[in-house]
Amino acid sequence: MKISNVCNCAFPEWYSKFKTITTESILIPLPESFLTYLHTDGLVLPNSSTHGVYGKANNLIMDGDVEDEDLRDDELMRMYESDWSTGCSTLIAESPDFGEFDLKVKAAIKTLGGRVFPKLNWSSPKDASWIAFDKSLMCTCPSDVYLLLKSSQFISHDLDQPFDQCEDYQKDALLPSLTYTLVLRKWEPPNPASEFRCFVHNNKLIGVCQRNANKFYPHIIVNKNVVLEDICEFVKIHIAEKFVETNYVVDVVHVKQGHVILIDFNPFGPVTDALMFTWSELSDLITQIKELPCFRCVESEEGVQCSDYANFAFPQDIQDLAAGEDPYKFMDWMKILTQKEFDTSSSSEEEEGTANT
């Protein structure tokens, strides 16, 4: 896998050619001020971007609450906001202002129906879904987008280390100029049971697997032949020979029999998750001559895998302690426990002495 392979899989490089077979999207170049914001520690959202494209009262009303006057009382909402904004002695971080970029994001969300799915050139912030109110990547206002992007390690990798696993990458060498882009895709309720990852080598489909290995979907077993036939046909007609790369990974949705849509392209190499394969197995498949690609899915409840993103919801310190990757944090933790035991012991002795007198 080379740097050029990674660059060609960036969303802005392929979207215009394949826009008729994928979800409607709007691309917005990231200004330097926003890139700086993404690299800055801390999480402060712009004041102007905290509400959706619809009225606040409309967003607050839930199904069945139409008759509840309190939920539609703007004066009551202002009272609540006033309570939360009561002054205190705590220093408040300065809220950023992205001006025109913020307006473009709002306009794009409105154009795409008021609900969008965000990503940058390569990755989406799916590792940060835990921080969203509804635990999904659906965004209705700029602050939803900014919150997910700021909280994602995948996005940080896109910005800081997009080529670190490329064979021609050299740390001090001059890298190709990149224009980072915010991609807002029209929100479609996800259906993991219909999503598949396809591995293509020399424009030949060699492997297909269920994209969500965290659940058993019985219908995939039943419809395996139909799914595989439709995906093979889709890749052959719409993708192979049209995409600039000959080796790549492509994600698709099998909507129904005879209908497949494109999700995304990824580089053919370890930087891309092989999911239900290993890259060693995929290398072996390259040399095998088969009429149909190897197909893998979860075949029973026993085959379900743990979620790859669950650990991202835990603080980094806890992850380091659990993995034993930072001995200094472990030493600090032991000191805290020892101090706590000492304090408890001292307190008990003082109480005992007081009782005796």
Automatic annotation (TrEMBL):
Pfam families in UniProt: D123
Keywords: Cell cycle, Cell division
Flavoprotein found in the keyword field: no
Species per Swiss-Prot/TrEMBL record: Biomphalaria glabrata
GO cellular component: cytoplasm
Family stated for the protein in its record: Belongs to the CDC123 family.
Ranges annotated as spanning the membrane: none
Keyword Cell cycle part of the UniProt annotation: yes
GO biological process, one term: cell division
Descriptive protein name: Cell division cycle protein 123 homolog isoform X3
